[in-house]
Amino acid sequence: MVDFLIQIFRSSYETLYIATFIVAVFLFISGLDDLFVDIYYWLHYIFNRRKFNKFRYERREKIINLPEKPIAIYIPAWHEHDVIDTMLLNAVKTIQYSNYDIFVGVYPNDPATIRKVEEVSRRHPNVHAVISDNPGPTTKANNLNQIHEGMIKWENKTGKRYEIIVMHDSEDVIHPMSLKVHNALIPEFDMVQLPVFPLHTDHMNLVHWTYADEFAENHTKDLFARQYFSGFVPSAGVGTAFNRWIIEFIGSSYAKNIFRTKCLTEDYDLALRLALGKANMLFAYKPFGIDCATRGYFPHTMQAAIRQKSRWITGICLQSWQTIGWRGDARFKFVLYRDRKAVITNMVNFLAYIVVIYLMLYELVRLGFSAYRDLPSIVTQNTTLWYLVIIDTLLMIWRMLHRFISVKRVYGVFAALLSIIRSPVSNIINFSATSRALYMFAKSLLSKKELKWEKTRHHFPAVSVPREWPR
């Protein structure tokens, strides 16, 4: 057996060396821009905290008695009969705001969801079902455009005019104070994004927790840095509020569609167009001293996570590159690069596991059996590859430390420790999702068929207010 391995190692030495070198170079490049963002964040966090995290240190009382602007909440729904009524009832029960309406976009060939929404609407007149002109599924963007048209029809019927539009999904647990926050910050800001954090669940549910790890880092650190650095805050699609007039102005340039119907990540696309138009965007973490975030359950299975993330990667990395290109100044291009580099880094990170395992086996045989010590070393001391491996290792430790700090802020020490163990699971999901996204995108280009909305099955928690929220 060992002799067989030696033959493989001898014949694959050059391939292994090249693969190791390529992986090391890509990890080094990716690690450097991550390091820059981290240092940028900490410098501003330490020396410019009050300006960096605007409104966190404002008093809660400041927003309580402000006049309430009319707010419209958009919720697209396709086969959401399992959760939509529970979600809506929880929202109208807990939201501490009176001047709002909820518009739920449904499809004529989805009678179960229509029935559930209309049942809630009969009890709560501020909940409205907007039935699409087209059967589902379409893209989520198409659904949202139909909701917008339905809202305008309601305005024409009632004479009411909404000033703020808030986006949510059918699995969201909306924070009771979120509309108060949006009411206070718009129209000073054209778009306000609140944090999104997956709900606490059993730690054995590794797939769900990989989302928690990623959102914790993005929504307690990275979005601060990119907001201050470039002015571009990507919309998460939930917990996002827009100045109604600014997005209609943007939409007038795109055949009167606020959301581009061919785009799979309509939220990111709209925020990107707003940023290019110099809109004033804000990421609001704990605004006015309130731990105000949107919570929800995320996919619990590998298959569901891969489907959802492949849609995100297609829209953010591939479609935005295709439609928007590389616009903006150097700072703006840098954040676009960071968004789109996932297509490469997700593949390289997975390849790194294969290379490391193969390399460890190679060195184990080379050093463990004296008869085979004539095998050449892959990583020789004081070579370029040697230094790259050392730097990459230090950058990896740095990344793990920041992931730990971010997860601890939201979920505590135990979850933060487990985030290190969950990292391989996250990388496997991201690799699979990227592979699928590339395949589906290429297939769509070759067949000239539009990509459709691949629905993620949603779950709603049994309790109305998560334990993370102070009452």
Structural features, described:
Helix content is 58%, strand content 8%. By secondary structure, it is an alpha/beta fold. The protein has 2 domains: 2-39 and 343-447, no CATH class; 51-326, Spore Coat Polysaccharide Biosynthesis Protein SpsA, Chain A, CATH 3.90.550. Strands 3-2-1-4-7-5-8 form a 7-stranded mixed β-sheet, with helices on both faces. α2 crosses α14 and α12 (302-323) crosses α16. Residues 467-471 have low confidence and may be disordered.
Judging from the principal axes of the Cα atoms, what is the shape?
Answer: globular
Q: What do the pLDDT scores average to?
A: 90
- The CATH topology of the largest domain corresponds to Spore Coat Polysaccharide Biosynthesis Protein SpsA, Chain A
Listing every helix as H and every strand as E from the N terminus to the C terminus, the arrangement reads HHHHEHEHEHEHEEHEHHEEHHHHH
In summary, what is this structure?
By secondary structure, the chain is an alpha/beta fold. 58% of the residues lie in helices and 8% in strands. A 7-stranded mixed β-sheet has the order 3-2-1-4-7-5-8, with helices on both faces.
Keywords for this structure?
471 residues, alpha/beta, Spore Coat Polysaccharide Biosynthesis Protein SpsA, Chain A, 2 domains, seven-stranded mixed sheet, two-stranded parallel sheet, 9 strands, 8% strand, disordered C terminus
Topology overview:
Layout: H1 2-11, H2 13-47, H3 49-52, H4 61-64, E1 71-76, H5 84-94, E2 100-106, H6 111-123, E3 127-131, H7 140-158, E4 164-167, H8 178-185, E5 191-193, E6 196-198, H9 206-230, E7 240-243, H10 244-251, H11 266-276, E8 281-283, E9 294-296, H12 302-323, H13 330-340, H14 342-368, H15 384-411, H16 413-447
Parallel strand pairs: 1-2, 1-4, 2-3, 5-8, 6-9
Antiparallel strand pairs: 4-7, 5-7
Helix pairs in contact: 2-9, 2-14, 2-15, 5-6, 9-15, 9-16, 12-16, 14-16, 15-16
